[in-house]
Design goal:
Two copies of one chain form a homodimer. Chain A has 197 residues and is an all-alpha fold. Chain A is built from nine helices and no strands. In chain A, helix 5 crosses helix 7, helix 5 runs parallel beside helix 8 and helix 6 crosses helix 7. Chains A and B meet through helix 6, helix 7, helix 8 and helix 9 of A and helix 6, helix 7, helix 8 and helix 9 of B.
Chain lengths: 197, 197
Amino acid sequence: VPQPRKPRSDGVRARGAIIREAVSLATIEGLEGLSIGQLADSIEMSKSGVYAHFGSKQEPALAAAPGVGQLVAICDAFFDHLARRTFPGGCFFAGAVLEMGTRPGLVKERITAFQRGFTALIRDFVITAVEQDELPPHEDADALTFELNGIILAANANFVLTGDVGALDMARRVVRRRLGVSTPTAAPHEPAAATQG
Amino acid sequence: VPQPRKPRSDGVRARGAIIREAVSLATIEGLEGLSIGQLADSIEMSKSGVYAHFGSKQEPALAAAPGVGQLVAICDAFFDHLARRTFPGGCFFAGAVLEMGTRPGLVKERITAFQRGFTALIRDFVITAVEQDELPPHEDADALTFELNGIILAANANFVLTGDVGALDMARRVVRRRLGVSTPTAAPHEPAAATQG
């Protein structure tokens, strides 16, 4: 008789390990190069174990001040993600869109759904920012969403090709100028206790 | 004794056929999926014949009025290229950058060199536009170049995923608003003689 699955204390860690391994592989070999069996082997887990761990990702940006604060936060979260070099091939979804765009099917549908969700989230933030008079009343929410997505994609492409964090600094500046907020004074996630000598 | 190679009247046509076939394959299978032998077979040409046909691509934009005219022309040329659905996977270079970014070697070097050349061309157009007072004197040429590249990449990603030409119309509007020029009144390349009934 199957037992109800208990939450395990190592669940979050295991989920992170699975995602990291799978997406790392995909950013190098492409989605076509992935198999669940190969993935399960490489993290020493059963296939059914691999299937047991999944959810959402956009909570950090939602914790920022509504409106322009959230817009800056979600863009910065993306640039931080690139800066940490989480995956060798940069943003998983940017690559997946171009790879799977020509292949109709479930994977393309899921990628499209994710992109729609991400776009809708940014658009909601823009609308809130307009309602709060942080952006001009005539701001076109669809156009601004498109522009921010473009800045994200340019940061990704530049960083993947050159490995130069200057591309990410540029992207942070461009986002802030576009949204009318001041430029950042310190690199994000810099350890507060770090000293120089 | 080798003879000097004569220009052939079908050279341009042959070059077009080679590029179309090679890049079409690459936008579906990725660059790794290409072989010169396979390509030569599929266009019924010898391998040495395939090697004999190459050069530059940016002449059409250079024919526009210097400055903002050239900036709009080069972006529109890109959107037209997508609208014609020349390749099923959209912009060859956008895909190639993400695919080859993790693979050091000659192909990555060539892609990097092409991207640098394209970026330098746009940046030169921006500088000319500033010198001609078409853009504000404080305009940051690197930042604007980065933004225009982002609009191009967003147009490509959206169009590859959705096939919706609305993404290209959006991109044309965003480019024009960013550069302070009026929106286009007619679709480009529309046959002048077309009638409605």
